[in-house]
Amino acid sequence: MVSVxxxxxxxxxxxxxxxxxxxxVVLHSRVLExxxxxxxxxxxxxxxxxxxxxxxxxxxxxxxxxxxxxxxDTDEMSAHKINSFERNRADRDPSTMFPExxxxxxxxxxxxxxxxxxxxxxxxxxxxxxxxxxxxxxPDLVLCNGPGTCVPVCVSALLLGILGIKKVIIVYVExxxxxxxxxxxxxxxxxxxxxxxxxxxxxxEKYPKSVYLGRIV
Length: 217
Known about the structure:
Layout: H1 2-27, E1 40-43, H2 48-57, E2 67-72, H3 76-92, E3 101-106, H4 116-137, E4 141-144, H5 150-162, E5 169-173, H6 184-189, E6 195-198, H7 201-206, E7 211-212
Parallel strand pairs: 1-2, 1-4, 2-3, 4-5, 5-6, 6-7
Helix pairs in contact: 4-5
């Protein structure tokens, strides 16, 4: 009986070690093959998060196509902003008569004033639904800026790499509102992102591994 337990513990230790090694390889592999277009997965949050992420997208070329947006299933305002943004983008560029974008919905990870205990359960549920969506889209790049919805999406994208399905580059841009402290999403995703961008020098000083480009939104 003791030998069986020892073998089981040894097997579990090896499995954890291999998983940690695979995670390290995925996090340190940032090479994208040259291509004409990049499939982009954008996580939009309610209110200011969506406004900021759309301002950032204004500076990206049509090479980032198709564009897949993920919003919370109760967030109608973000859906309206995204549709308006894509229509205006198409109007400015006559060559883009049929903009290739899609809006997907997943359950919100955390509602305002929701307890932390129940947040764990809703985040796991959101992640359970995020992975099939991320697997179907298989984006080249995930772009997000802090809404709670981005955590399960980024973890799902990371799982694609761990499982050997596809390496997805994760770019996290901390909100302009975060001057001295990271958001909760930022703290979670700081070491899981390929590029973690901050917009204030105080955050760069606290987190030397982050990328400081000044104000970009």
